[in-house]
Amino acid sequence: MVSPKNIFLIRLKSIGDVVLTLPAVSVLRRNFPEAKITFLTSEENLSLLRGFRDVNESFGLDRSALRGGHPVKMAGELFRLLRRLRNGKFSLAVDFQSNGESAWLAWLTGATQRWGVVQKSARRRAYTSSLDHQPQLHAAESHLALLRHCGLGTDEVSNEFVLPTDALDAARTFLAAHKFTSDRPVLFVQPFTSTPAKDWPLENFLNLARHWQSRGWRVLFGGGPGDRAALEPVRAAGFAVSAGVPLLVTGGLMQLAALTVGGDTGALHLAVAQGKRVVMLMNNNWPGHPHPFQHPDWVIVPPDNQTIAKIKFATVIAACEQALN
């Protein structure tokens, strides 16, 4: 194919899924070093794109305005979106979301080449080249499979998130304000996920924190703004909580930590993309499940397909010690 000058990428949500496009973005850059790459995501995830060194431009979609039922807001957001899509003069659009909304957006670009993974046959018409959905594939591997199907080489793959300097500085400021010092290692704990059924009990995480505190470590609990109330028992136990800081600052806190432990959540994928070691607790680790990219061995699952609450405390301690060694 003729090397495209302007490439448009789509991944609207969520945090971990946006991060897991990094390997495919690196492949696109290696194959098309002179191209301008533009990335569309949901507004709430837009800050993440600051760490994608291979992306030249990004913009956010206000999905709440499009779906809110307010005619004026819907029309305004749609007009803004259409203008950006048409003004981009994209020659290649790659859909990493693979749903009806993103297929429509890819088609609206007017790009002569439009690539996507197809989960429903009716969506195939939105693309000029498509690959059937393979549920057994890890999300990042699915993106790479699409690029190979469309003729790109994927021999060299990079999963690298480059944290902006200001976010790392803000993380250092946060730690200093909470009297964390460089002479003591930090354990970062991300206890909550988007689904309660995926959460290891908070009391277990508190016991994990007490264990490492007794060995001279400082422990920091992270989370989103909505996790603050649920983390009150952690504050009451005397541990620092960073829930609600900007997402990239959370990235900085994990970068400064010696180890990050948590559930199946986007924050841990962000840590992995920064080259940090994690221990991820998941309900299962079957093919297609988004374990840390290229590191399925960094996952702990319950025995015999039981619930995540059945993961033993001693198993997590052993995994942490193995990670540190």
Q: Spans with pLDDT under 50 lasting ≥5 residues?
A: none
Q: Write down the overall geometry.
A: globular
CATH topology-level fold name of the largest domain: Rossmann fold
The name of the CATH superfamily of the largest domain reads Glycogen Phosphorylase B
Strand proportion:
15-25%
CATH class of the largest domain: Alpha Beta
Sketch the topology as an H/E string, one letter per element: EHHEEHHEHEEHHEHEHEHEHEEH
Q: Strands across the major sheet, in which order?
A: 3-2-1-4-5-6
Distance between the termini: 47 Å
**Total domains:** 2
Q: In CATH terms, what is the architecture of the largest domain?
A: 3-Layer(aba) Sandwich
Helical segment tally?
Answer: 12
Question: What secondary-structure arrangement, pairings included, does this model have?
Answer:
Layout: E1 6-10, H1 15-19, H2 22-31, E2 36-42, E3 57-61, H3 63-67, H4 71-87, E4 92-95, H5 100-108, E5 113-118, E6 129-132, H6 139-149, H7 165-177, E7 186-190, H8 202-214, E8 218-221, H9 232-236, E9 240-241, H10 247-256, E10 259-263, H11 266-273, E11 278-281, E12 299-300, H12 313-324
Parallel strand pairs: 1-2, 1-4, 2-3, 4-5, 5-6, 7-8, 7-10, 8-9, 10-11, 11-12
